[in-house]
Design brief:
Layout lengths: L18 E4 H20 L9 E4 L5 E4 L2 H7 L5 H16 L4 H20 L4 H22 L1 E2 L5 H12 L8 H15 L1 E2 L23 E2 L2 H4 E7 L7 E2 L3 E3 L11 E3 L3 E4 L19 H23 L5 E4 L5 H10 L2 E3 L4 H11 L3 E2 L16 E7 L2 E7 L7 E7 L2 H23 L2 E4 L3 H14 L7 H11 L1 H10 L3 H22 L8 E3 L6 E3 H4 L2 E3 H19 L3 E4 L7
Parallel strand pairs: 7-17, 11-12, 11-14, 12-13
Antiparallel strand pairs: 1-22, 2-3, 4-18, 5-6, 8-17, 9-16, 10-15, 15-16, 18-21, 19-20
Helix pairs in contact: 1-3, 1-4, 2-3, 3-4, 3-18, 4-14, 4-18, 5-13, 5-14, 5-18, 6-7, 6-12, 7-12, 9-10, 13-14, 13-16, 15-16
Amino acid sequence: GMPGGQGMGPVMVLNAKTQRETGRKAQLSNISAARAVADIIRTTLGPRSMLKMLLDPMGGVVITNDGNCILREVDVSHPTAKSMIELSRAQDEEVGDGTTSVIILAGEMLILAEPFIRANLHPTVIVQGYNRALQEALAILERQALHVDVQDRDLMMKLVQSSIGTKFSSRWNDKMVEMALQAVLTVARPSGNASSSTSPASVSTPANPYNHKMEVDIKRYAKVEKIPGGEISDCKVLSGLMFNKDVTHSKMRRRIENPRILLLDSPLEYKKGESQTNVEITNTDDWNTMLKMEEEYVENMCMEIIAFKPDIVVTEKGVSDLAQHYFAKAGITAFRRLRKTDNNRMARATGATIVSRTDEIQESDIGTQCGLFEMRKIGEEWFAFFEECKDPKACTILLRGGSKDVLNEIERNLQDAMQVVRNVVYEPKLLPGGGATEMAVSIGLRRAGIKVEGVQQGPYVAVGEAMEVIPRTLAQNCGVSVIRTVTQLRAKHAAHYDECLEKGVDFTPCNWGVDGTTGDLVDMAELGIWEPFSVKRQTVVTAVESACMILRIDDVVSGSKKGGQ
């Protein structure tokens, strides 16, 4: 136990092994943990960002600067740090971008709470101040927002640029941006639950942006195929799709223009019973009859298919040798054992319907929207390409690159880029990037903080201070004089704010921020760096809320019950 005089031994409520931190000590240790996590991530913000190289326990290497990816790989023991990591995961799942910013912001909020805690301010007071500030911050974001037309390619390009300009693939930026845009606009389609279907199917006009008129399922319908080798500049989004399969029979055609495609999910071989059955045959003729019946069954299925004169038959299950023979004779190319997800993509791209039984095929089930089918050899493997589809609703993104590491990082970057496009398709509002939004919020909160009465004023203004961390980090990663840059930026925004106040006009957005490449101050509207509104809003909300949650912790007990102690 603990030292103590005779008879005055301390009362041990908790097990002796339990370590316990309470009160201020717990809060301070939480804050330092959060600071540590934020410091790991800090250098990966902005176009001049560094990469992190992580070794996982298996000895594999991950090289990335995707905030979420880094934190997923790092093994963390401190509970607070763990909850910080959850943040970036939530951010990644919800909006797909801003994973780095959210960690940095949350960390900064906590660091700025430290002096208050040392000054004996009660955490709940700090939390209240933070929450009030959050409401005001969201209002400022609304003011800064710019509405956008999803079909405006130039603006969209610039937007995605800001998301992936910070990534490894930025040398091939235009390529990546093009690909992300093309892929997302391909799979975007009006969602089934949208009320009005007056607009044409391909483009929905966001008259009411909150009713997600568009359903964009990147995961399911934009498949990324990574094939090592080739150049990064060889990457492309197919207007159609491809998969890694060879034709089942060597004599089948390997190139068909405007093929008729039939998709099945039933096996083209003799049906084996669901349950085990034994058949005892006493007569030799019966044996032949049975074989004949099996063959006739397969032949029958093939004839039912051939009647519709498809050029390509694709099934998720097997195709027996006999069926292959019939198909080869009829000049039909067959593929077997296709993944269900690939089959669904085929259906979306070619306009076919997946048929479950051969006797239920209808003319309307046949896919005719594909312009060209071709087998191509890439490296050692054969791939089936279905290209030049008319208005496909699914696509394959073909990535080529030197090594697996490169491909993986490019895939992660593309993922981010596609998420950004998706967010804008959902909610066509943008905010200036480059720390401009954060600075505007910062000034707005400072000014509004003067009116906040009582103890909450400190924490309220602190949120404003914390927002400055984004432009500050951008400047820092460029290697320019941080203090000078941030001070000038602050002055710009403050002057703008006061000018609006004096004139008594509504606040016009001030778009000055840090150019992440050079570290100069520029007007983001001119530089064309925009970010989706939904990403920024999510970042701010998540950061503040998590900071509040961590501040509320006043007791960390480690060494709870484990089995067999």
